[in-house]
Amino acid sequence: MNLIQKGLLAIMLISSSVAFGQITEDPEERRGEGKDPLKTKTPEGDPLPFSQRLRFGGGISNVSIGNPFSIGVAPVIAYQASERAILGVGINYVYYRAKLYYQGGATEIYRANQYGGRVFGMYEIVPNIVKNLYVHGEFENTNVGYTNYNIIPYETQRRWVSAGLVGLTYSQPISRRFGVNLTALYNLSYNADPTFSSFVYGGSPWVIRVSFF
Question: What DSSP assignment string belongs to 37-85?
Fold first, then answer.
């Protein structure tokens, strides 16, 4: 690359950065007019670039206190598909611990590291009545470790546990691309496989999350 080409590339990068900053700021200017920032367009009606519709964050998930005990972290990338719809993907890690009781009084402390991924969608239901309240649906797949007592010597194995979850998310915006989200979901698949579902979600089909994106 010669000197002229390098100079042109530098000008293009600087120009792109300036344009990016301008587009980022435009929706926020609506606050001065008493309006909410647009999520997918500038005030002039131009669509925001793909990169400016992305949200990055995550939160705490799969919280169960007591026996069993579980807690997880769940980073996410979300995309503002429209003014009311959000699509996203994420990865999950859950630490699980339970005290198991056997006949004769024997007990065992079971610990497991679980990991997986999920896809989700959120749609703002009634923005004219309750802003930032979304119906929320997702599919989650988690890899679970367990001890197979049908094999001698006992062997630790892993299997996938799938779940469909539906519920509501209330989002408190902090900026156009970031907010605090409180989510309550019901696991439609919990009773189909309660033993392994409890390894991931604790002792209840309800999943409560606090996330930031």
Answer: PPSSB-TTSPBPPGGGGEEEEEEEEEEE-SSSEEEEE--EEEEE-SSSE
**pLDDT-based confidence at 2, cuts 50/70/90?**
low
For 11-20, the CB contacts below 8 A with 24+ separation are 20/49, 20/51, 20/52
CB 95 within 8 A of CB 129: no
Closest CA to 55 of 137, 133, 122: 122
Q: Distance (Å, rounded) from C-alpha 191 to C-alpha 187?
A: 9
**Fold classification of 49-212 (topology level):** Porin (2.40.160)
The alpha carbon of residue 85 and the mean position of all alpha carbons in its chain are separated, in whole angstroms, by 15
Which distant-in-sequence residues (6+ apart) come within 8 Å of 74 by Cβ? 58, 59, 60, 61, 90, 91, 92, 93, 118, 209, 211
Burial tier of 92 (Cβ tally within 10 Å: 0-12, 13-18, 19+): buried
> Which pLDDT score is estimated for 133?
98
